[in-house]
Fold tRNA pseudouridine synthase B.
Amino acid sequence: MAKGQKPQRRGRKIDGWIILDKPPGITSAHAVGKIKRGLDAAKVGHGGTLDPLATGVLPIALGGATKMVPYVMDGIKLYQFTLKFGEARDTDDAEGAVIETSDNRPDDATIQVALSAFQGSIMQVPPAFSAIKVAGERAYDLARAGAPPDLAPRPAQIDRFDLIDRPDADHAVFEVASGKGVYMRSLARDLARAVGTVGHIAVLRRLAVGPFRIEDAVTLDKCINYDHSADCEPDLVKPVETALADIPALALTDPEVAALRNGMALSLIDFLGRIPATSSPGNGLVRGMAGHRFVVLGRLSEGLLRPERVI
């Protein structure tokens, strides 16, 4: 540090998750910035980007929880969206410009038949307005410059795609359970084409990401107006291991914790009788617990327990 230079203030060390109900009109990065300032947190990230138009569950990782973000993003996501028939837009959502229209409106039976082709493992062309990089440039930057890229189809996993409401002939409401990297805008666009018309997403809300549910989410205002008192923190910040609730827990001794924290792999013979029945000894994850405290995310493989993430 140069003479006379003041040390940079890094903020409070907070470890855990905030389950944010993201409001419309802001980016995920903007939401992270507001929370970082509101909580005076040293380290903040997020799991699973939401478009500015979208609302709903945006997991915010604080401190040690940022190491768990890849596992959260691998979790099943649950969405609800409203598809507006009759208008295709360049962004595939309500924020874009109309590029094509159609007077055709499908009935419920036609929609139900078409849905079967959009479930399971499918190939999907991402929206032109997406963050995918093309020759070093973001696709949305190219699209905004008037040169939308020709994006290649990508694999997408759709576990469930249900028609849940039909408010009128112009709109249909769907619920979708999907894997990582699935674009709801592409799903809406392609379904509209499949039923003989065009369309775009008018409303998009994410209801769940892995173990995080909308019922447990808090507003951005609550995060911004947080008073920093220790008594309030448990109401807002969930433990780091909340993100791994679906991963089996494995009890560890103090020497085992020390070894795993030093990067050592341990023989599964030493864990006979302790390995959770729901884990996969061939290639499965476990939550290493020291009493009630989560300390390491480990992987069972080739007769060994290897540390993947240490807290």
